[in-house]
Write a structure and sequence with these properties.
mainly alpha
């Protein structure tokens, strides 16, 4: 701003010097004396117009630079935000992969546990069948060799054992069903994440 006003004053001084340095013709007429003053006025008006134009250009250029700087700062902020969001997305993706790996490992363990439990139950069912066969054979044997009281006691004892085995088998079946439900949920979660 100071530079513009300095240029204006310099132009004004140069114009005045040119007017003052110009030779004045002595004609004796009043019109000749007023002519240099009009030239000075025109020159002053031109200098003022020029200085206003320079001032407008300076101010508009300064405003444009300010807007450009503000836009650049805004873009820098947006780029930083996008960078943070990209880092957060990468972290979320890493965590999801870890969860999927954990779920897959847990599914493998659950499947192995379910297989072992099914095998154990199959063995217990087979034992139950064998025990029933033995009970029948025992009943046949007892029918021929034991008293009725002894047979009743043995029958109650065998009945208690059979009921205990049935409860145990039912409990194991419920455990397998619970494990199968958990396994289905884990598989559904794993498929949803992938």
């Amino acid at each position: 701003m100071k530079t513009i006003w300095g240029l204006c004053l310099l132009c004004l001084a140069g114009g005045l010097r040119a007017v003052i340095a110009a030779p004045v013709r002595k004609t004796g007429k009043m019109e000749d004396k007023t002519a240099p003053q009009e030239e000075v006025n025109v020159l002053m008006f031109g200098v003022i117009q020029f200085s206003e134009s320079l001032n407008y250009v300076y101010e508009s250029t300064e405003a444009k630079i300010a807007r450009i700087s503000q836009t650049l700062r805004s873009h820098e902020g947006t780029l930083e935000k996008l960078g943070r969001q990209t880092e957060q997305a990468a972290e979320v993706e890493r965590q999801i992969k870890e969860v999927i790996q954990l779920l897959q490992a847990q599914m493998v363990k659950q499947q192995a546990q379910t297989k072992r439990t099914k095998e154990w139950l199959a063995g217990k069912e087979q034992e139950g069948v064998e025990l029933k066969t033995k009970v029948k054979k025992l009943e046949m044997f007892l029918n021929t060799n034991m008293s009725i009281k002894e047979l009743q006691e043995r029958a109650e004892e065998q009945s208690y054992i059979l009921k205990s085995l049935q409860h145990l088998t039912q409990f194991q079946k419920e455990n397998i069903e619970t494990m199968n439900e958990k396994l289905s949920k884990l598989q559904a979660m794993s498929e949803a994440m992938t």
